[in-house]
Structures are given as structure tokens and as C-alpha cells.
Amino acid sequence: MALLAMIATSSSTGLRRELAAATLWSRSPEAQARTNLRQALSILRATTGENIILSKGEMLAVNRDLVSLDIDALDDKAFDLDENITGFGGPFLDGLSINEPPFEEWLATNRANYGRIVRDILFDVGNFALESDQSKRALQAADRILTLDPFEEAGMALCLKALAANDERSQVQIRFDEFECLLRSELNLEISSDLVTLKTKLLTVADEQVNKTTAISVPSILVLPFKTLSDVPEHRYFSEGLAEDVITQLSKFSTLGVLSGQANLSENATEDQLSRAVKNGADYLLTGSVRWLGERFRLSVELIEVASRSVKWAERLDRKISDLFDLQDDVSRYLVGAIPYRIEEDVAEKAEKKSAEQLQAYELMILGKRLRDTLSLEGNLEARSLLELAVKKDQGLARSHMYLSDSYVVQHWFGQLDASEKEKALYHARRAVALDRFDVHIQDHLGFALHTMGHWDAAEAQIRNALSLAKNEIESMSWCGYALLMLGRHDEAAEIIQAVAKRRTTLPPTFEWILGQLFSFQGRDAEVVSTLNGASLLNSTGLAFRAGSQARLGMLKEAQFTLAEFKDARTRDQRLSGMKVGANTIETALGEHRVLWRRKEDWEHIAQGLRLAGLPD
């Protein structure tokens, strides 16, 4: 069945014999795998008939003149959606498993792809049916969605709307209660406030069309055109264009509300600008001035908290003028890289002074992120409790779901996760994408959640998708680079991480942690030792790379000291995870890390460094 499925779903050119053998018999020698393939083909032909499986040299294909595939119908423009709702069964090749990692990875990727296609089709059917007063048809689509994914809130929303449109008011409450119990018992989650609101409206207003909205309280910033200390019109246009670029790029951050205002040449005093910020309801004000000094350009900028009128960040940029467009691009990227991080830090500092009951969902999310950024298992377990509360207070805040998922991802890096915890990581990552698919941080995090599940190809595809969106999001770019490093794409990772290093403004120590690991794989041990130092060591992984580089440089006493720190950090992580405690050998200290690196030689590189530092096998 596995072989037939691979052949049937292959591209129009067919499936290479070599790929089939390597995927289905990965544990066998190459010659034996090819023998197994020939035997399997003989059995298939005996079962299905000689003409079903076609051989074209090294390629295998099915005879499309004799065989039709149900998945082909998904791309058929003549496919009748209304007539085929019940034709969608369970997941792709449901129940099939052959305990071969390459095949399981292939199956997971295809299952996810076809699942998304089917889900989208069913939502199209259901929404169209509601608009066409075909409530029973809409209910069929909703029930099928919930069969495929019982935790799909959007599917439950469609179900409740269809029941209300069909005058089944009692069923609205019953299905709602069943769904609420399911989320609590299986995922320890409360039902979203959006679904509660929808249910209430459906029970009180007949045939009401409800548009779900989520009111999220995030800090807002007013960006005014920078004051131009020049009478040259071209310079004034530059200042206005720079402010517009900053506004455009900041508007892409889902965690920041961006306001803009036109310049008023008579209104340059800080007091006047603050008054405008108060009038616009802004929490922060970005203001500054541009000075032109011959062939040089100077921007002085301040980030002011409106309520306290205090300067939270100030910077002066000096650049040599070459091309004005390149200059504008360079400066706007710098500002956009710094401002959100500075605001998040300010919000976190104020939130730490409040009790848990006083904290809003956004503040809980920011505090959770700060703990997440420690990249320690202890910090992320603490972050999880804050983020679970943030999700409970507002299930519509996508970043809360993302960071909650990340707490499980980080636990996977330093401890261990059971299957249900891995599913939670993926669930919250997908919830975050569903709530805000334009947030590039959320998109790159989904790649890490897929990595945690062991779906290497799907993870890489998702990271590349995030990279295509990450232009000025340098923190996201650095994480995409790290993901590619773990996936064995060292050259691409180096290109991305080094580009970030040239552009970075203010980044947490996690960037140095990533950079140090890249240097190690590049054989730049002296730079590893200078980079993975102090705050950037962060955790046992940083210590492992530092100890290995010290040993390679002949710094044996220092390497032994770092090794002792590494062993202490690993036993602490093991204890927190409930694992068997022990870090006196490569296997007990580092064995769990094999699943993090796609290439065996990358894990071996870390292990060899620890051996040189004095840790036995």
C-alpha cells in the first residue's frame, strides 16, 4: 500500500526507483532495498494487474488511463463541492504506518498538505451554503471539518451558525458545551471569548450574521515626520519619506498599533508633539530631526513614553550620503529593528510591578516572551504559566499562542516532550497562524513546531516561507537562520545570520547564542569563545559549544571548567523535565539532543568537542 501510494501521488514524470527504495527500506543496504522494491512491484502487479503500474526506465507511474485517484478531484475545476462533502473521509492514508522514518516524514507532509486543501474546500462549501440559505449543507461541511480536527474553533463556529440558521437553538448550546468540555479535558484550554460571544448572539438574535472581531489592547505609537534642519526641498522630501517608510514597516507588527500625523512646521517643540500624541491616544511618540552636513547625514531620534513624558530610547545615526534611496532604506531598517524591542522592554518593566490579577493579556504575553528569551528550561516553564493565563484572558492574541507553543519547543531542546505535549506545541503554533498569518515571527515559529514533531521537510518549507516574508524583521531572520542551521543548511544559515549581524540594532542575547553556534560549525573557535560569553551563554547548549571550542584551541583548563558548568546545567534540565538525572557521559548528557540536528555529523561535531574537553562516551 505504501509503495502504491507513493507511485500514485508522484509528479507527472513518475517516481524514481532509487527514491522509493530509500524511502521504504531505509534500514536495508542499497542492493537489498532494490531487491525488496522489485519483489513489492511483483506483488502489486499480481494484485492489481500487469498494466496498472508502468515502468519507464528508472521511473514508476500508474496508468492514468486505467486508474483514477480521489485526490486528483481536488484540483478538478469541474469538481462539484456540494455533492462531495461526505466524500471526504479521514486523514490522507489514515492508519497506514510502516515504521520507516523517511516514509513517515513523506506521509506527514502529504497528509498535512491534503488536509489543508480539504479543510479550505469544506469551509468554502459551508460558508457558501450559509449565504445560500442551505443550513443543512453548511452543517454537513462543519461536521466534516470537526471530524478531521475536533479542536478546530472556526469549524465549531460554522457549526453553531448552521444550527442557528436551521432553527436548532437547543443544539447550539449542546454542541457549544460539548466543545468546551473537549478543550478543557484534552488541551486544558478555555473556549475563546469570540466563540462565547458568537453563541450568545446566536441564541438571542434570529438569523443574525455574526462577524467575529477581536479587540486586542496593544501599545500604540505616533510617528511624526522628522524635522528637517535644511532649506533644500529634496532634504524635506527625504525626511517625510523616511517617516512613511518607518510607519509602513512598523504597521506589519501585530503587537504594535501605529498612528501617523502630518508635520506642522509651526509645531516643532517637544511639548506640542506630546500634546498631539495625547490627542491621538498614543502610548509612545517617535520624534527626531535630520541634519545634512556636506556629504554626511545625521538623524537624531527619541522614543518617548507619552504618559510619563520620559525618553525611553535615544539614538544618533551618522551616515555617509551616497544614494538617497539606499540611505532611506538603511535608516528605516535600523529604526524598525530597534523600536518594537524597546517598547516591549518598557512594557515588561512596568508589568513586573503589577500583580497577576492586574495584568492584561498583552502584558502577560510580553512577560512570557521575556522569560522565553532566556532560552532556559526553567524560564520557559515559568513562561508557560503566564502564557496560559494570557490565552485564557484573550484567545485572540496570536503572539500568546505562539510563545505558549514556543515554551514546549524550548522544553524539547533541553528536556523531553511526550506526544501530547508535542501536539500542544503544534496546536498553538497553528492557532497563532490562523489568528495572524501575516506575522512573520508566527510563521517562522510554525517551522520550529514542525521541527519538534520531527517533520523535517515540512519544517524547512515553512522556514523558507517565513524567510520570503521577513524583510525588516531581523529577529525573525536570525531564528530562520538558526532553523536552517539545525536542518543542516549551513551555508544558507551563515548567509542569513551574517546579514543580520551587519544590520542588527538591538537584539536579545539569543542572537549571540545563535552566532556562536554558527562560528563553531565554521571552525572559527576563537570567535566562538569570544561570542558565547556572559549573557549569551544562556544554557547548556551554549556551554557545550564553548567547551568544545576551548578544547580545540588548547585551552584545556578553561574547557574543563566550562564542561563542569555544562554538566551542572544538563542535570538541572533533566531534573526539571522529570528525566533520569546524569551527565557524566556523552550519551547521558547529549544523547537526547540527537533529534534536534537533521545531520548526524552535526550532533557528532558537538559530541566531539565535549570529548576533547574531557567528557567520555
TrEMBL record:
Residue span, Bacterial transcriptional activator domain:
69-203
Q: Which Pfam families match?
A: BTAD (PF03704)
Which superkingdom? Answer: Bacteria
Q: Which PANTHER family match?
A: TRANSCRIPTIONAL REGULATOR REDD-RELATED (PTHR35807)
Tell me what this protein is called: Bacterial transcriptional activator domain protein
